[in-house]
Amino acid sequence: MDGSATVNLHSLLTSSSSSLISLTNNNTSSHNAKDSVSTQQASTTSVTTSTTTTSTTAPTSSSTSSSIVPASKVKWCTDLEKNSLVSNFENRGWLRCTTDDSWNIYWATVGTVHRLFNPDSRVRLGDNQVLNHFPNHYELTRKDLMVKNIKRYRRDLEKEGSPLAEKGPDNRYLHLDLVPDTYMLPSDYSIFADEFRRNPTTTWIMKPAGAAQGRGIFLVTKLSQLKKWSKDAKTQAKTYVISKYLDRPFLMGGKKFDMRLYVLVTSFRPLRAYMSRHGFCRFCTVKYNASTSSYDDMFIHLTNVSLQKHSGEYNSIHGGKWTFENFKLVIESKYGRKVYQKMMDDIHWVIYQSLKSVQNVMINDRHCFELYGFDIIIDDDMKPWLIEVNASPSLSATTVADRIMKYTVINDVYNIVCPDGNVPSVKKSNTIPTDEQV
To answer: Are the CB atoms for 283 and 303 separated by under 8 Å?
Structure first.
């Protein structure tokens, strides 16, 4: 990235009181290429007491519209009984209703959203109705589709002769090396087998394309390990992704970890996205061991809290998590601010380009927004890699700090989605909220 973009991103992350960073595209130079990540401040208020800080007064004359619903009349419903959601709605003075009523805000499961947008449902959303998933969010959140879209995006840029698609001597992308080498199985088995034979000492990680919480994951060091899987996969008709395992992860206290970062997208065309400052690091409970003899111990290799909480080493006080602020302090104190600054710029770049990869395939319904959970891992060279994107990042809290953090993230989401505490008119959904509104 060019120097100016680096400085702007870092100053927002470290100096501003804002809780969200806005990621946009202004077509200026970045990464020595004709694309960039630029930022603007989204000033939001962190939760310090149980009293809401969101204004529920009538909008000013400049924002008054016949389609705006007064905050006291905003109706909400949800499929998820999570404290971070319900408390936010209640603290704003909004009214709960059922899914059969004329709701304004619906925090729904992905299954509900699929049913609502199914043509057979004959549901037509009104101008004052918004919900929390795009109809085909899975283009980014299914592991196989995410990789396919990133690969297609890179090919398209290559055909256009874009400097973004430049490759190095090793034939790897210089600016778009976002994900580890990945193949789809069983469809790409022959291609994968050829790659495996060329590099027989490489370790691979196998994941069900549509699963979550670490289910069905295992490490592969021999092609023979896939024989049993192949029989099961044909029976179950499942698609898997197999990726190069990052066997040299950056370690903290000798343990492997990854990052969960929250990204709010309010529009794909134009692309409008905000990254929360309130992410966290998830740690394995057992110190890292690169020996193949450790590959069956998922407490060493998988960071999923749903798995790690069953370890005998699990600490329920901190839940195996660090706040992003603590991570920042450690990196800056040990390696310096410039190292942390570059790492964060690289993370922003990975997130931004992954969103660009699905920009043209996503159904950009004006009634929709989405809070994505990006999982990023850092390797021993301080390079970030995108592991997966979650459509429904967990809102369950394992600690007090976790509960406060997730409440704050949801609070920030609705400061952007519903500026002034009102349901925005979808006719004005491309309007960027002002600092005063959020």
So the answer is: yes
Cα 99 to its chain centre, rounded Å, is: 27
User: Mutual orientation of helices 337-358 and 3-14 as an angle, nearest 10°?
Assistant: 100
CB under 8 Å to 32, separation ≥6 — which residues?
2, 163, 175
Distance of alpha carbon 44 from alpha carbon 324, whole angstroms: 18
Q: Which residues contact 18 (CB under 8 A, 6 or more apart)?
A: 12, 41, 42, 43, 44, 277
Q: Look over the chain and give the mean of its residue pLDDT values, rounded to a whole number.
A: 80
Q: Is the pLDDT confidence value at 364 over 90? A: yes
Alpha-carbon span 187 to 193, nearest angstrom: 12
3-state secondary structure 264-321: EEEEECCEEEEEECCCEEEECCCCCCCCHHHCCCHHHHCCCHHHHCCCCCCCCCCCCE
Q: Give the residue carrying structure tokens 């918004």.
A: 130
Report which of 285, 332, 334 is spatially closest to residue 312, judged by C-alpha positions.
285
Greatest pairwise CA separation for the chain in angstroms: 70
237-251 pLDDT, tens digit each? 578 899 999 989 999
Residue 317 banded pLDDT, cuts 50, 70, 90:
low
Distance from CA of residue 180 to its chain's centroid?
17
Instruction: Give 401: exposed, middle or buried? Use CB within 10 Å, 0-12, 13-18, 19+.
Output: middle
The SS3 of residue 182 is strand
The reported pLDDT for the residue numbered 71 is 53
User: Please, where are the H alpha helices in 29-183?
Assistant: 83-91, 110-116, 138-141, 143-160
pLDDT by residue (tens digit) across 382-428? 999 999 999 999 898 888 888 999 999 999 999 999 887 776 567 76
What DSSP string runs through 58-79? Answer: PPPGGG--TTPBPGGG-EEEES
Range name among 18-22, 43-47, 355-359 with the lowest pLDDT average: 43-47
pTM passes above 0.85: no
Nearest Cα residue to 299 out of 320, 330, 324: 320
In terms of Cα–Cα distance, which of 438, 179, 154, 413 is closest to 278?
Answer: 413
Go through 20-37 and write b for each residue having 16 or more CB atoms within 10 A of its CB, e for each that does not. bbbbbbeeeebbebebbb
Q: Give me the pLDDT at residue 381, please.
A: 95
